[in-house]
Amino acid sequence: MGALSTWRARRRVDRKAPHPYFSGSMAILPVITVPDPILRKQALAIERVDEPLRRLMDDMFSTMCDAPGIGLAAPQIGISRRLIVMDPTRDEEPKRPLIMVDPEILERSHEMRLHEEGCLSIPDFTGEVERPARTRVSFIDREGKRQEMECEGIWSTIVQHEIDHLNGVLFIDYLSRLKRDMIVKKLTKVRRAEQAL
Q: Could you give the CA distance from residue 80 to residue 39 in angstroms, rounded to a whole number?
């Protein structure tokens, strides 16, 4: 892999202007949680970008915002397809939604970034995860066009976290085995209690 400074693609997510991707009515979908086995499956590629997929994108974005969260992958709503939505902006800031179909990380920086990560599929638990501070990503956009983008800072963290979901990897996999097992055990106990009701 070449150095980040040699990248031809210079579109930086952190500097992108807001885009009014979403309009109309959107559904709030249930988010599945650990230990649901779909979270550990490799998601399948998406054959085409069409109106039903765009409605799913809108519903995922609505679900993510309602949770609230800053990223969501299709497996988290029980759909094992390679689709992610992201937006880390705060309430007072204009929305900057980013959708990626079939995303692939092309390059990662050697510089690392530590961030306290959480996950809608692992409620009430967080952990510090170190990931590359910059990534270059290839993906298909909402209009079905192939794009490449450089992601920095929080955007780099989110895109890696969400692509991990597409590969059956969770942020707790980066934690110590003891902490990971404790989290899974607690969530499994909660799920069993809910199912017993």
A: 8
